Amino acid sequence: MLRGFYTAASGMMTQQSRQDVLSNNMANALTPGYKADQTTMRAFPEMLIERTDSKQLPVHHSVNIPNNKLIGSLNTGVYMQETIPDFGQGDLKETGMSTDLAIWNGQMPDDTGSLFYTIQNQDGGTSYTRNGNFTIDANGFLVTNSGHYVLDEGGNQIQVNNDEFNVTRNGEIQANGGVTPLGIVYHPNAAQDFTKGNNDLYNLEEDGEAPVNARNAGGVTFEVRQGMIERSNVDTTQTRTEMLQTYRNFEANQQVLKAYDKSMDMAVNQIGRLR
Predict the structure, then answer these.
(1) How confident is the model at residue 274 (pLDDT cuts 50, 70, 90)?
(2) pTM for the whole thing?
(3) Distance CA 144, CA 33 (A)
(4) Quick one: which H or E segment has residue 18?
(5) Which single residue of 36, 103, 225, 238 could bond 234 by disulfide (Cβ 3.0 to 4.6 Å)?
């Protein structure tokens, strides 16, 4: 019976964790460039239950013969294995702001690849983002809304001085009489090698494969649209449906837990009572 408690409780904990992920997706449905998280669940190892007893033969010298009967398998619960971002393309929204930039994915050599802007994080290292809702700081540098510098393809900060600059479709900034290529990189499997950080930034794992310059990646085409932002790729209708389903699954596990608790109460306070 105690195994049933653990199985039902693990189901409730898993559904609660999944609900947290879905709620975060819904909360960021209007965040530019946000990529929805997807959850994967996995069952704990199953156990094969077998009843072992013995059978006594009716002979002069009693002989006990082992008698094993297969009952079946017992599932020991479920857990949320990992959270994986979906790097699918989001819709584009026109803003008319020259500092807003959106990447439109073109041809990719595989379905798991994705493109990113390169950003200087607060530690001075390189992070990546799809949120092109940029602005200009007091020194004339192109930065994210959280104040992180946007980098060119050489890893340098980009100074445009004001918002009177143009960005070509291939991601080259025309400002101050010069041309500066935006740092846009391609990663063939970002869901595996990138982890989510703060402020819409993604960080490369220590043992992850480094992304490459998108302009030098074979079979990769893209466009940068100025005056537009990429919307979140969260499907709000689907997310609401999944949130309701998750809530119902949590309730079902809760009812199972209550049934086990009631059975345990009867076993302890009624069947096991000394008379």
Answers:
(1) low
(2) 0.80
(3) 12
(4) helix 2-27
(5) 36
Buried b / exposed e along 98-121 (16+ C-beta atoms within 10 A):
bbbbbbbbeebeeeebbbbbbbbb
Q: Where in the chain are the domains? A: 1-86, 89-230
Written as one letter, the residue type at 242 is E
CB neighbour list of residue 34: distance below 8 Å, 6 or more residues apart: 28, 90, 130, 131, 200, 232, 233, 234
Cβ proximity of 122 and 182 under 8 Å: no
Q: How far apart are CA 5 and CA 271, in angstroms?
A: 20
User: Which pLDDT value is given to residue 62?
Assistant: 64
pLDDT tops 90 at residue 218: no
Transcribe 196-255 into DSSP letters. E-STT-EEE-TTSPPPEETTTSTT--EEEEETEEEPP---HHHHHHHHHHHHHHHHHHHH
- DSSP reduced 3-state for 257: helix
Bridge partners of residue 94, in order along the sequence: 228
Average pLDDT over every residue of 198-225: 91
68: three-class secondary structure by DSSP: strand
Q: Two tokens at 148? A: 């992180």
Task: Enumerate residues 6+ apart whose C-beta is below 8 A from 28.
Answer: 34, 232, 234
Read off the pLDDT of each residue in 73-92 and give the average, rounded to a whole number. Answer: 86
The answer to whether the Cα torsion of 106, 107, 112, 116 is positive or negative is negative
